[in-house]
């Protein structure tokens, strides 16, 4: 997962695993901040005249339609974090089902997924795969999940975990009949299994793109310095982003999209696995699609010097080489000069300093509570706890600014159905909602 998980997580794991986890609970929220739209615009499920914040997972108040709010520049963003849920054991992801239910789903690295419905954490897990996984390597475990675009009708969801042999597994489940807050454990169907030569750099994200295909980021196989030579090896799936059709024929693990960039093509004279959409990645732990533009944001964890953010425009055909291990960020890796021809460099990178060492990718804000944040991408660093805002400028460049310094181990950001954003604290087991200061 991250450098800090590798180097410092023993202390976190010791705290989390030596005592029973606290009950998962809702943290009472304060009154609606003055920067939210007027409380006279009622949230769904909120009593008329109430000034209490809407429950998590419920659509937040909509700004007055006639009021146009200009987006802020990143350096103008004022951010605070409101704790809303706690008691989770090593939370690593939060998402929604996209089915109109407003539910949130929280992934614990130790193997359970929990449902938050109508602002309450359910008493039984949605899914428990703790018997299938290993967490021995600290970066291993249950790492991500995604709901099929047709989840409302198919009931299909996908998870990403490391099995007891240390391999990466993408597995499909179906929601239990008559029990929407529980997956059918007997419906498990393996979509993909990739052997891992080491216990780190497993990546862990799953993303369905606007094209309906499943994007699977995979790390380079671990150890350090791309010891196994996977980043630039087109015949292995490690160090790549895969693009798979997992919905057309549910009787098959997956199909190869016919427009994948390396279908019936080679790369520098070498055969390339048809599943591959992009190469040259070290550990793309968290990725996301902008729900408005369809742009693909890829945060790749660096080695010793730089962390990076890559952006792929919507509809791009793929075939990108993001450079690892030729490059680390925008710099040559372990060499004063290197051949950068054919490489796609990140839009921004940042050097290790002030405790930074492991980027945690986030989301472009598309909620309604803070129209001044529209189009801004938020991301953080697991080790330092810092959070940044990133947005394009009018000259074709990028504006990047630190907007909050926390003491959290930021394992992931999360997005609800309304487009509001959350921050997960790995060590503390707390989920925070991002709010304007």
UniProtKB/TrEMBL annotation:
Keywords: Signal. Residues 1-21 form the signal peptide. The keyword Disulfide bond does not apply. The keyword Signal applies. Residues 90-425 form the Glucose/Sorbosone dehydrogenase domain. It comes from the Bacteria. Pfam families: GSDH (PF07995). PANTHER family: ALDOSE SUGAR DEHYDROGENASE YLII (PTHR19328:SF75), HEDGEHOG-INTERACTING PROTEIN (PTHR19328). This is Glucose/Sorbosone dehydrogenase domain-containing protein. It comes from Caldilinea aerophila (strain DSM 14535 / JCM 11387 / NBRC 104270 / STL-6-O1). The lineage of its organism: Bacteria, Bacillati, Chloroflexota, Caldilineae, Caldilineales.
């Amino acid at each position: 997962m991250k450098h800090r998980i590798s180097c410092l997580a023993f202390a976190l794991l010791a705290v989390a695993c030596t005592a029973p986890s606290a009950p998962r609970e809702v943290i009472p929220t304060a009154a609606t901040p003055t920067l939210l739209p007027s409380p006279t615009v009622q949230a769904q499920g909120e009593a008329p005249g109430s000034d209490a914040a809407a429950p998590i997972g419920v659509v937040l108040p909509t700004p007055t339609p006639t009021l146009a709010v200009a987006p802020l520049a990143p350096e103008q963003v004022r951010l605070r974090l409101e704790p809303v849920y706690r008691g989770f054991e090593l939370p690593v992801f939060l998402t929604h089902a996209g089915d109109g239910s407003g539910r949130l789903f929280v992934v614990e690295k130790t193997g359970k997924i929990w449902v938050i419905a109508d602002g309450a954490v359910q008493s039984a897990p949605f899914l428990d795969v703790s018997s299938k996984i290993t967490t021995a390597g600290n970066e291993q475990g249950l790492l991500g999940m995604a709901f099929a675009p047709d989840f409302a009708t198919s009931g299909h969801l996908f998870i990403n975990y490391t099995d007891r042999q240390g391999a990466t597994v993408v597995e499909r489940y179906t929601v239990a009949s008559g029990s929407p807050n529980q997956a059918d454990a007997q419906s498990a169907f393996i979509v993909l299994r990739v052997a891992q030569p080491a216990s780190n750099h497993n990546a862990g994200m799953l993303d369905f793109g606007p094209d309906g295909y499943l994007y699977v980021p995979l790390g380079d196989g671990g150890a350090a310095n791309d010891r196994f030579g996977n980043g630039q090896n087109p015949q292995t799936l490690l160090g790549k982003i895969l693009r798979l059709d997992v919905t057309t024929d549910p009787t098959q693990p997956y199909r190869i999209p016919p427009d994948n960039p390396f279908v019936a093509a080679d790369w520098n004279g070498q055969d390339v696995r048809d599943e591959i959409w992009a190469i040259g990645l070290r550990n793309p732990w968290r990725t996301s699609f902008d729900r408005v533009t369809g742009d693909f944001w890829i945060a790749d964890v660096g080695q010793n010097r730089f962390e990076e953010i890559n952006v792929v425009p919507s509809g791009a055909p793929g075939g990108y080489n993001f450079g690892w291990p030729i490059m680390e960020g925008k710099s040559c890796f372990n060499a004063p000069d290197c051949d950068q021809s054919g490489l796609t460099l990140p839009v921004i990178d940042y050097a290790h300093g002030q405790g930074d060492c492991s980027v945690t990718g986030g989301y472009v804000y598309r909620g309604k509570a803070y129209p001044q944040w529209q189009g801004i991408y938020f991301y953080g660093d697991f080790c330092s706890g810092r959070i940044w805002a990133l947005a394009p400028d009018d000259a074709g460049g990028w504006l990047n600014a630190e907007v909050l310094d926390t003491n959290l181990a930021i394992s992931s950001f999360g997005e609800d159905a309304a487009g509001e954003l959350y921050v997960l604290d790995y060590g503390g087991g707390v989920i925070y909602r991002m709010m304007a200061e």
